[in-house]
Amino acid sequence: MTDIFDFEQINIILEQAYKKNNAPSVTLISALKKTPYHILISTLISLRTKDQVTLEASMRLFEKADSIEKLAELSENEIAQLIYPCGFYKTKSMRMKEICKILLETNEGKIPDEIDELVKLPGVGRKTANLVVILGFNKPGICVDTHVHRISNRLGWVKTKTPEETETALRKLLPLPYWRTINDYLVSYGQTVCTPISPHCSICELRCVCHKNGVEKTR
Fold this sequence. Notes:
By secondary structure, this protein is mainly alpha-helical. The chain has twelve helices and no strands.
């Protein structure tokens, strides 16, 4: 491969690497609990939280509240106890109660299927909204977290300063068939190969075309 914009070949390489590693927690949850409700809540739990903690906290909560109506019946403190020790668990439990109230009062408890509507909910940013649209509604979206933002810039695909700018740039750059999987693939790759500090360039199959932007030390 000689072109960093050979998306078909890069997708094959990333897919092969992805299959060797565990999927991100929200993706695993979506395979078990496929409704937009489960995707939204597990994604909120996942923010600034390790995958294993997210998975365990989400499953504990869903055992008690498998729908937005049942979640609304729990107190803020009960939710906090169930999702502990995820990061900012008290704030997240408060946001969940606010979301329940809003959706039950204005949308019959249904999760919106449009990004612009999802981001109006408390605590829901574009990353969360895109994941809900992709995994919950099987619609196209590009979810950009720290791994996607970092690797897209490192490879030389984009030159952006924020995840929001990266999402906009990738929507223009990436062919539609690669939108749904780019987050899973790059999150997995960023956790195992293209790590934030001292990436494993010696074993990376993209090393010959990667621009290595911002990389100071490699392994």
